[in-house]
Amino acid sequence: LNLDSFQSQVFSRFNNLSSINPDELLSISWMVKLLDAFNGCLDDFRLILSDHKDLLLKPAADKYATEYFDRAIKAMDILNAARDAVETIRTWEKHMEIIVSALDTERTRTIGEGQFRRARKALMDLALMMVHDKDSNGSIFQNRNRSFGLKSHDSSSSSSNNNGHHHHRGGSSGSSGGVGGGHSRSLSWSVSNSWSASKQLASIASALVAPRPNDVAATEGFAVLVFSMSSILLFVLWVVVAAFPCQDSSSSSDHHRGGLVQFSIPRQFSWSAAVSSLHGRIVEEWKQRRKGGRSSTTSGGGLLREIGRMERCVMVMSDAVDGVHRFPIPEEEVRGHVDELSSICEGCRDGLDPLERKLRETFRKVVSCRAEGVELLRK
Known about the structure:
Subcellular location: Membrane
Family: Belongs to the ROH1 family.
Keywords: Membrane, Transmembrane, Transmembrane helix
Main location: membrane
Oligomer: single chain
Strand content: under 5%
Mean pLDDT: 81
Membrane topology: Single-pass membrane protein
């Protein structure tokens, strides 16, 4: 099994992701690129599986493949949590638009008391929502029966691959249920109150160690391929959980933001340096924001760059409105804040739809890859 091309592609993709301006890291546009890189790796992985079906017949290779496909089920839950998080951010952005509209000075050069009160109410509502979502880690969406809109033909070939397991609502932690056509929708349901993003990551990371030389030989290199794809999957999901306000019912945001999952990628993998660099930079970003005081207010909302801008703007504007006692308010006193809010809203409007589409695409690719792999194992 020649893995050089696969490893080279992984290196190229993640090296490009790490060679960016610091201000771009963890932005919406960068997250789209991250998911795009993962999707490319997954496509290459699927192609290798398809071209080397005979390897899956080996008992040792079967074990590695099964472990990866179990991790894929857990990945679906995290991708769903990220989808709900996008909806949370959209709700925040709508409140910011209300503030911008209330403080519009295009027609008048001053802000009247009525405009100010509307803006202040929207600002206070937004601040309360962001604090609530920090405390509940997105739980306001956890009871929604949300689907990525899988069509029956997306997984029709896997309708017999559920192996008798019925994947129930409430997440897939520890489950090895299938993704057959009759159950693919249940796999995309929002998770239960007890579901935890950090625990899900820890479950994916469990027993993920570099294969020993004898395992590499016994599987003709297949063990290396699966370890590589599993490590890439784990890293991308860790970034997703760090970036978005994902539900984490049983652990503090410190845990899943600060590196609960340990990455141990041997140096002989050409892409290990790029992934390790990104991991270190993201952990440092978490530490810097925590030092900046976010942990006492809205920290836990995610490390996404746009969320950070929202939080800072809300804090500054909250302080500003507390100091207003006279009306009308001159335009120059609010113009800077309104311009910043408008910029954030524009970034969210332009970026959230492509991000959601990319999350949807990633989810479907994970489902399809697992369905195809399980089908190969059954033959």
